Amino acid sequence: MSSSPPPKRRKEVESAISSLQNDTKIILLDIEGTTTPITFVADVLFPYIRENVAEYLDVHWKEEPCQQDIEALRLQAESDKAAEGVVSIPDLCDKECDEKTMKDAVVKSVLWLMDNDRKVTALKQLQGHMWQEAYGSKLKGDLYEDVVPCIKRWKTEGKDVCIYSSGSVHAQKLLFGNSVEGDILPLLSGHYDTKIGAKVEKDSYTQIAEDLQVEPGEILFLTDVTREARPAKEAGLKSAIVVRPGNKALSQEEKSEFDILESFKELWPEWEDQSDEQEDDK
Fold first, then answer.
1. Neighbour-count burial for 40-79, b at 16+ CB within 10 Å, e otherwise
2. Where, in this chain's numbering, is Mg(2+) bound (predicted)?
3. Less packed terminus of the chain by CB within 10 Å, N or C?
């Protein structure tokens, strides 16, 4: 499990940070760089797709879910046809195109989308199906050490914890259902992905609040990306930036714009104080 020891925070910021939970009913969590190390996604999950997509297509090509994934990717490629380097995928009904040629086009299209960091539903859908096979045997979802204890504490306080990630809901459930802490899905109350909207768009957060039937100000959104925290804040949500080892460094402007956490535990100053005392006793 990845370690992220709670830092000793200055007392003058503790009150502001802990107040983020005032009148909060929903905790909305990002995954990459927030609950889970970026390295797990970048160095484990994504390389698995790159290395195994061709074999996956060979094994599952004629199955309905795979065919649906391919059609979604074809439509995405059609939508992106003006983009430089995009790889078009022949229609599955095109009898003039042999299976190998079509498979090669799908593989190249998937790699192009990943190379260009496209967080589109068609790609996430295929990735989710591939990870489904790997989790439990080849993969375990990595989590920071503070994640599960804090989710449990939120639950005891009557708050619901939901996930909002660019990864598909299916992929989210695979990660949390097959984590290094076991199956923690029973601790989570909801999942959102790009089907509700992009994470950099204000309307996405408005839609989430409406779906959860709460006021935007009753949601606390925790993410490592200011481009996501900003539209959430504009939509009326409370937002804070989570700084984890390996995350992109924040500018001074970003640090002054948002409350900063290095551990979820910092939302409870007394928990931090206990951690500091235990550290001092060692």
1. bbeebbeebbeebbeebbeebeeeeebeebbebbbebbee
2. 30, 32, 224
3. C
- DSSP, collapsed to helix, strand or coil, labels residue 36 as strand
30 is in an annotated binding site: yes
pLDDT at residue 14 tops 70: no
- Domain 41-134 listed as CATH 1.10.287.70: no
Question: Which DSSP letter does residue 176 get?
Answer: H
In the prediction, which pLDDT does 184 show? 98
Question: Alpha carbon 69 to chain centroid distance?
Answer: 20
Residue 165 marked ligand-binding: yes
Q: Is position 239 annotated in a ligand binding site?
A: no
- The answer to whether the CB of 5 falls within 8 A of the CB of 140 is no
CB 271 within 8 A of CB 278: no
The answer to pTM > 0.70 is yes
Residue 105: how many other CB atoms lie within 10 Å: 19
Closest to 122 (Cα-Cα) out of 79, 63, 186: 79
Which helix (H) or strand (E) is 135 found in, with range?
Answer: none
Pairing mode, strands 259-261 and 238-242: parallel
DSSP 29-83: E--BTTTB-HHHIIIIIHHHHHHHHHHHHHHHTTSHHHHHHHHHHHHHHHHTTTS
Q: Does domain 11-37+142-281 have CATH number 3.40.50.1000?
A: yes
32 is in an annotated binding site: yes
Domain boundaries, the chain: 11-37+142-281, 41-134
Instruction: Determine if residue 199 is labeled as part of a ligand binding site.
Output: yes
**pLDDT tens-digit readout, 156-191:** 999 999 999 998 898 899 999 999 999 999 999 999
